[in-house]
TrEMBL record:
InterPro entries: Cys-tRNA-ligase (IPR015803), Cys-tRNA-synt_Ia_DALR (IPR015273), Cys-tRNA/MSH_ligase (IPR024909), CysS_C (IPR056411), Rossmann-like_a/b/a_fold (IPR014729), tRNA-synt_1_cat_dom (IPR032678), tRNAsynth_Ia_anticodon-bd (IPR009080). ATP binds at K269. PANTHER family: CYSTEINE--TRNA LIGASE, CYTOPLASMIC, CYSTEINYL-TRNA SYNTHETASE. The keyword Glycoprotein does not apply. Monomer. It is found in: Cytoplasm. This is Cysteine--tRNA ligase. GO terms for molecular function: ATP binding; cysteine-tRNA ligase activity; zinc ion binding.
């Protein structure tokens, strides 16, 4: 069965067929690096990290590009507030972004282009659009003629009159139409700027992605993705300018993930309920946050709460216990290949996992299949007689599908695990000597979550698995 994707552009589910049978050109809009990213940003990067991993598993050669917008009005404002240059602010928050994403298990893209490193490519695009009559200069600013592009508004599925009404909120007499948008912005005194045929200035937001996508992926992308909030105007404007520039379709499939709600309210800066990943990492593990972000279908909204994350902590503990017990059981298993029963069960689990992911990348259902695999793992471990081949096959399935694709399962080495447990027991003993009983109880609870039970005996502390 082919992978089925919901394409925002057509409003339909379509079989996935890239331009080249074995290659995928994949572009995801990255953050504007004027501050720390929030949990809504993280949903984009975690989910499409899984999509990239799954496409690779399905045999595609994926070229994955995710940009950084490192110059815009917000960066300029932040640089003034922090007393640093725009490049210094951008560099600091790019580093912070990678720290957050490393903790959430997001792999680096093949290319992380920065807007400021591609000014020439943007100017080339703008020059071509002017020559074709799709753009015009007004006293150092350059604007795109939106109404000249056929089907403008198709991605966001909004009539032109509604788009015009929204655009009139920002009155600008310099533009021919309220829908026209800036390709190049004339520099204000003291602002960061580059020389151009239209005078000193800097690029508009939308032209950045068009120029960088074309440089690294060509005229037509297979997948362009981002949050729902980017559908209009950003992605709509990317389509308009890119297709006018190249004369070719810009992207075959447009994927957009849903919003995150904080309780019953949509997360937004105006409501003051934005949660930064940097702050959440002080309360939860990166794996808990990643699990939460994958626990609902990507196009659906998802509600964040302490209760939901705490439930995920219990789920992770069940997985970790099964993995640890599997590793421990390996040492006492008899020699032999995987049984026919195990091979057949893993074949069915694989079919179900692929079925979930092929069905518009349904990570929620894929996680359900992972729990079926955990249940089967517990059945295997509990058997009086089991072959090492069966256990290794089960271990390999969990590692590949739960770890390599979903990024949720962490495999353990038995020797390392036992050393970690002994270290925690020693730490607990020291806490008790220091009469820090709350810390001692916390360590016991941590071990219990991993399926490790402690027993106080006259001979000292003993531990056993549940």
């Amino acid at each position: 069965m082919a992978i089925q994707l919901y394409n925002t552009l057509t409003r339909e589910r379509e079989p996935f067929q890239p331009l080249e049978d074995d290659r995928v050109r994949f572009y995801v809009c990255g953050p504007t690096v004027y501050n720390f990213i929030h949990i809504g940003n993280a949903r984009v990067f975690v989910f499409f990290d899984v999509v990239r991993r799954y496409l690779t598993y399905r045999g595609y050669e994926v070229t994955y590009v995710q940009n950084f917008t490192d110059v815009d009005d917000r960066l300029i404002k932040q640089s003034i507030e922090e007393g640093r240059t725009v490049p210094e602010v951008a560099a600091a928050y790019i580093d912070a972004y990678f720290e957050d994403m490393d903790d959430l298990g997001v792999k680096r893209a093949d290319v992380h282009p920065r807007a400021t490193e591609h000014i020439k490519e943007m100017q080339d695009a703008i020059r071509a659009l002017i020559e074709k009559g799709f753009a015009y200069e007004v006293d150092g600013d350059v604007y795109y003629r939106s109404l000249k592009k056929e089907n403008y508004g198709a991605l966001s599925n909004q009539p032109l009159e509604e788009l015009k009404a929204g655009a009139r909120i920002e009155v600008n007499d310099r533009k021919e139409s309220p829908l026209d948008f800036a390709l190049w912005k004339k520099a204000k005194p003291g602002e960061i700027a580059w020389d151009s045929p239209w005078g000193k200035g800097r690029p508009g937001w939308h032209i950045e992605c068009s120029a960088m996508a074309r440089k690294y992926l060509g005229d037509t992308l297979d997948i362009h993705a981002g949050g729902t909030d980017l559908c209009f105007p950003h992605h709509e404007n990317e389509i308009a300018q890119s297709e006018a520039w190249t004369g070719k379709p810009f992207a075959r499939y447009w994927l957009h993930n849903g919003f995150i709600n904080m309780g019953s309210e949509k997360m937004s800066k105006s409501l003051g309920n934005v949660e930064r990943v940097r702050d959440l990492r002080g309360r939860y593990t990166g794996r808990e946050l990643r699990w939460f972000l994958l626990s609902a279908h990507y196009r659906n909204p998802i509600s964040f709460s302490d209760e939901s994350i705490n439930q995920i902590g219990g789920a992770i503990a069940r997985v970790d216990t099964a993995v640890a017990n599997l590793s421990h059981r390996m040492s006492a298993a008899m020699d032999g290949e995987a049984s026919e029963e195990v091979r057949e069960r893993l074949r069915l689990l694989t079919t179900d996992f692929e079925g979930a992911m092929d069905d518009d990348l349904n990570t929620a259902n894929a996680i359900s299949v992972l729990f079926e695999a955990v249940h089967f793992t517990n059945e295997l471990v509990a058997k009086d007689v089991v072959s090492r081949g069966s256990l290794e096959a089960m271990q390999g399935w969990l590692h590949h599908f739960g770890g390599e694709i979903l990024g949720l399962v962490e495999m353990v080495d038995e020797a390392d695990l036992e050393a970690e447990i002994e270290t925690k027991i020693e730490e607990r003993q020291q806490a008790r000597k220091n009469r820090d009983f709350s810390r001692a109880d916390a360590i016991r609870d941590e071990l219990a979550k991993q399926g490790i039970l402690l027993e106080d005996t006259p001979q000292g502390i003993r531990w056993r698995r549940k």
